[in-house]
């Protein structure tokens, strides 16, 4: 594999020479700015061998580097070894930005190339400004992987399907009316949606084009004259075509989008900064641009009553699957020969038994002991560890159901654990409870709450590099914006109806990893003379392993919260379980003394 990577880099450099560029930048995204992309656009993975979901590769004529965040440092070091690609650790002091590095290794007046279809306008414009400081210029070139990638996966052709209003809670027409109202507020009359989850949400359609994400490759153009879906025709069956016609949505081939945009003049386009650079330039040539976040981003993030009810139902079914899994694992660990991969398969089978199951919401992270310290670890036949009746297993998993998306992490004690592990486990739990119990005034953003989850580990000189929480889609992408809980500033306020995860963790390289995660719902709390306050309601229903807790580290209030949460879990799941499962859950949710 390492030889393949070096050969691919050599072939790319030959194209770079022909194009007259001295560097080429390969992001992880596709023309729709997706976090997870169809295999066709996994060019960064193909050229580098690095399989993480986030990262950017930069290739010069004699050097190469990969920029990625702390979730992937350990993974990237392993996968890049022997390829000649240098790892640059983002947000670590001393790490140069891509533009800084190119300014050091290139000569003035040299050209840097990108594929404008897979780079956002905000990224491209920032690069232009930064590279200008070093007298370097940015140009767009045709996708070189068309010629380089032998047996490149084809674009997905799976049919799309309708998500009924019994699940979505609002009709497509209602959603388009809401969008047009927001456009009027912004003094815009046209909108190009390119984010796949926003298109799926707007049209009440779902697909299977992206692994774990029920979306489909398309664009949606909203103008006063027509609403047009650009999509490969073979993806639309007669039922969906009739539905689209009824909703007054016309369809055109996916590849017609650029030419159609060239023909539009004199419009006031609202364009998100995540629009790809090529289409942005096409529109900006003959139209006025209002650079603003898509109105769909907030509309989609605030769940309606039907979606919230669906989340509750999905979480119950997912909780049943998790309880059955935990019972099986705890009872068989001493006698079975289970591995990280085999338990992943077992959990999948238990979820697949549940009504409305549509697949997993992301690849399961099952990291035993030292593998738990690799934040986005994914077991392979070569790395899959055999589990023993000792130590900690970090299990981060989720599912897609027609009525909701789940995301849960539990760190599971498989037998005796060390005092250090117990202490760290309890530090994580304290931060998890502190965030779970937060009350905050209207206008609060996730950055202002992030310290609640970190405060106890900070006092112990410990930190983690990933965000504390992300939005969760409704039978859509498991990662959803605009709101987040993280250290770096994200201004989007937390509002009632938003779903958000709570997932602090501690990771000690070569030893173990610990993370506890629930998905929560923002709900009203109270109104006082100081304004309106909100709080979090846990959606996830699954016991938190108490075997690794040091009770003396918890306050009376923290124990009370944990006991009440476990009481709620037992009462919610009890009617759906067998007698043996009820007994196991009763023991797992006993009050912590």
TrEMBL record:
Q: Does the keyword Metal-binding apply?
A: yes
Concerning InterPro entries, the annotation shows:
Creatin/AminoP/Spt16_N, Creatinase/aminopeptidase-like, Creatinase_N, Pept_M24, Pept_M24B, Peptidase_M24_C, X-Pro_aminopeptidase_P
Domain (Peptidase M24 C-terminal): give its ranges.
533-592
PANTHER family in alphabetical order: XAA-PRO AMINOPEPTIDASE 1 (PTHR43763:SF6)
Q: Which GO terms describe its cellular component?
A: cytoplasm
Ranges where the Creatinase N-terminal domain occurs: 8-133
Q: Mind listing the GO molecular function terms for this protein?
A: metal ion binding; metalloaminopeptidase activity
Family from the record: Belongs to the peptidase M24B family.
**Residue ranges constituting the Peptidase M24 domain according to the UniProt record:** 311-522
Q: Which CDD domains match?
A: APP (cd01085)
* UniProt KW keywords: Hydrolase, Metal-binding
Q: What is this protein called?
A: Creatinase
Pfam families named in the record: Creatinase_N (PF01321), Creatinase_N_2 (PF16189), Peptidase_M24 (PF00557), Peptidase_M24_C (PF16188)
């Amino acid at each position: 594999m390492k030889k393949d990577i070096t050969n691919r880099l050599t072939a790319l450099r030959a194209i770079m020479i022909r194009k007259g560029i001295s560097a080429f930048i390969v992001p992880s995204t596709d023309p729709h700015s997706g976090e997870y992309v169809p295999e066709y656009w996994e060019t960064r993975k193909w050229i580098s061998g690095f399989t993480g979901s986030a990262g950017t590769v930069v290739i010069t004529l004699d050097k190469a580097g990969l920029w990625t965040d702390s979730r992937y440092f350990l993974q990237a070091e392993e996968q890049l070894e022997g390829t000649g690609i240098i790892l640059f650790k983002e947000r670590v002091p001393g790490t140069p930005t891509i533009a800084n590095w190119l300014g050091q290794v290139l000569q003035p007046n040299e050209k840097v190339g990108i594929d404008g279809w897979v780079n956002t306008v905000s990224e491209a414009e920032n690069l232009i400004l930064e590279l200008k400081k070093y007298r370097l210029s940015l140009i767009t070139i045709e996708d070189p992987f068309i010629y380089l990638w032998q047996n490149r996966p084809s674009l997905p052709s799976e049919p799309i399907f309708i998500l009924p209003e019994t699940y979505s809670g609002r009709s497509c027409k209602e959603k388009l009316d809401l969008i047009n109202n927001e456009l009027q507020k912004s003094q815009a009359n046209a909108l190009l949606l390119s984010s796949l989850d926003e298109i799926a949400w707007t049209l009440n359609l779902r697909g299977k084009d992206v692994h774990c994400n029920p979306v489909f490759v398309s664009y949606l153009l909203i103008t006063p004259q027509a609403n047009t879906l650009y999509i490969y025709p073979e993806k639309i069956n007669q039922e969906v075509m009739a539905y689209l016609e009824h909703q007054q949505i016309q369809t055109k081939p996916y590849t017609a989008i650029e030419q159609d945009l060239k023909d539009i003049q004199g419009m006031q386009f609202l364009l998100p900064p995540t629009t790809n650079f090529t289409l942005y330039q096409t529109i900006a040539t003959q139209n006025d641009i209002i650079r603003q976040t898509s109105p769909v981003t907030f509309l989609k993030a605030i769940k309606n009553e039907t979606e919230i009810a669906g989340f509750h139902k999905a979480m119950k079914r997912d909780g049943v699957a998790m309880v059955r899994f935990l019972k099986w694992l705890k009872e068989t660990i001493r006698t079975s020969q289970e591995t990280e991969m085999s338990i992943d398969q077992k959990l999948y089978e238990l979820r697949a038994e549940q009504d409305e199951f549509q697949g997993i919401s992301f690849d399961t992270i099952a990291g035993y002991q030292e593998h738990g310290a690799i934040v986005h670890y994914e077991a392979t036949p070569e790395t899959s560890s055999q589990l023993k009746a000792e130590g900690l297993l970090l299990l981060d998993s989720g599912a897609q159901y027609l009525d909701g998306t789940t995301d849960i992490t539990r760190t599971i004690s498989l037998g005796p654990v060390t005092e250090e592990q117990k202490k760290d486990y309890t530090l994580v739990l304290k931060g998890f409870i502190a965030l779970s119990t937060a009350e905050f005034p209207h206008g609060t953003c996730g950055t202002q709450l992030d310290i609640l989850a970190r405060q106890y580990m900070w006092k112990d000189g410990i930190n983690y590099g990933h965000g504390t929480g992300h939005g969760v889609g409704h039978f859509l992408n498991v990662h959803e914006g605009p709101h987040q809980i993280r250290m770096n500033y994200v201004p989007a306020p937390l509002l009632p109806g938003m779903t958000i995860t709570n997932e602090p963790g501690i990771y000690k390289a070569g030893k173990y990893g610990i993370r506890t995660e629930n998905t929560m719902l923002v709900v009203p709390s109270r109104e006082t003379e100081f304004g309106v306050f909100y709080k979090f309601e846990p959606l996830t229903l699954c016991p938190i392993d108490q075997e690794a807790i040091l009770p003396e580290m918890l306050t009376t209030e923290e124990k009370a919260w944990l006991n009440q949460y476990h009481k709620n879990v037992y009462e919610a799941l009890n009617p759906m379980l067998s007698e043996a499962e009820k007994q196991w859950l009763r023991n797992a949710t006993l009050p912590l003394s």
